[in-house]
Design brief:
Immunoglobulin-like, 2 domains, five-stranded mixed β-sheet, 17% helix, elongated, binds dinuclear copper ion, cytochrome-c oxidase activity, transmembrane helix, membrane, copper
Length: 160
């Protein structure tokens, strides 16, 4: 079989790229232990407020510089535990975020951080993030959810 020179080059290039990609994914998954955010925890979207995690939304200290942040999303609001919709987090704190929605799909993005989740009715979305830089961050909904979509936001203050 006669193969053109360029064909050989591209087959080599394609295979090498695939190999590098699979190696990186393998190292990331098996050596560094990275995995996609879990969405295996389910609840009834109609009774979110009765769930132990979401009875009192907001920030709770659970350890040494470690916090649990729970937020209930609904059209078109994030319940963060206070009417001002401001969450104060000490700089450097490790925060376990848990959130869910009581109605339709909402987004959960803390702009400027790696926190970016989709909130689906019936599922608890979780993400752990360490807030390394002080400043004001905005929690926004990035999934179109209706006429008030653009009004859905809350503020996160990372303080020294
Ligand atoms: Cu909630 Cu868009």
């Amino acid at each position: 079989m006669n193969m053109h020179k360029y064909e050989k080059i591209w087959i080599f290039f394609g295979s090498a790229t695939l190999l590098v990609f699979l190696t990186l994914v393998g190292i990331s998954a098996f050596y560094m232990g990275n995995k996609p955010p879990s969405c295996a925890v389910t609840l009834d979207p109609e009774t979110v407020r009765e769930h132990t995690l979401f009875k009192e939304p907001g920030l709770k200290e659970i350890g040494d510089n470690e916090y649990q942040l729970t937020i209930v999303a609904s059209a078109f609001d994030y319940d963060v535990g206070n009417p001002e919709k401001v969450i104060e987090i000490p700089k450097g704190a490790k925060v376990h975020v848990s959130s869910t929605t009581t109605d339709v799909i909402h987004g959960f993005e803390i702009a400027g951080t790696n926190v970016n989740m989709m909130l689906e009715p019936g599922y608890i979305s979780t993400y752990t993030n360490t807030f390394k830089n002080a400043g004001t961050y905005t929690l926004v909904c990035n999934e179109y959810c209706g006429v008030g979509h653009h009004l859905m936001s809350a503020t996160i203050e990372v303080v020294e």
